[in-house]
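Worked problem 6 (solution included).
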Amino acid sequence: MTSNLNHSRINLPFLYYYTGLPNVEHFFVLIILIYIWKNGSMNTQTGSKTKTSVWVVEKGQVRPRRDQLATEEPLEIRLASPQKTIALTMRTPGADFELTVGFLYSEGVISCREDIQRMSYCVDESVDGEQRQNIVNVTLREGLYPDLQPLERHFYTTSACGVCGKASLEALRLRGCPVILPEPIITAEIIYNLPDKLRAAQGIFKATGGLHAAALFDAQGQLLNLQEDVGRHNALDKLIGSILLSEQLPLSNHIVMVSGRSSFEILQKCTAAGVPIVCSVSAPSSLAVSVAKEFGMTLIGFLRGERFNVYTGLERISFTNKV
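Solution. The predicted structure is:
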């Protein structure tokens, strides 16, 4: 697939024309694209880890040390027809196709694996070599014409907190997501053990200390899949995308655990995937709790050691001693 974007002849008016961005609403997109045009890839390494030098200050002493950072690079998701950029997110390179599929599924652009006819990295020779790995081209199946207008808000997604101005709970209702069935019933002891299992499987986090994770467990607490990224929303998109590609959706009778907090976006994605139980190590937002109540999910927060809070769906948890 070729692109009309030529980095050697780019200018600001053309950027506005090419991206179709209104006024300065998506100013950050322009900044990122200009940076890439002038400097190429944001890192000399496009793997999940990037080496760096740091100064360690400890007890009044300063010493140099080599360290590793979690790589953060832009990922542009493009549709082939209509030829349109539908999202630009900052992510950790790796599992880019899974991230793309998870994003498209969570946003209602696709409903199954067969809706994607082809996926590839950019092959446009006018784009710098490393930068091609930051662009994923998607060709949808013939006859599929999704409503793309709601996706205009995704032209710049920070890896930290997702999209500002995300769709409301009402928009999630209009998508027709069903209320999740009351199974499974799991013990509190299974939940207690999830954080340790998640941390033990975080390979990149051990090296960098700078990544979020999204993990899938079965009802017995066995870890089935784990994805990492600088953004917890991206990690969950990678997880859901990998499950969709293996044709294992919906995720009834499963548990999803995320590092960080549970936001509306986390619950939105889990609702689309049919996840009955969502756990996190921190607090949920008020809108996340509203989503969980509306769609019959069990939402657990502050899961640390042998303690957690249940915000909705207590009936799915069995206790030895229940007050």
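Discussion: Residues 232-245 form the longest helix (14 residues).
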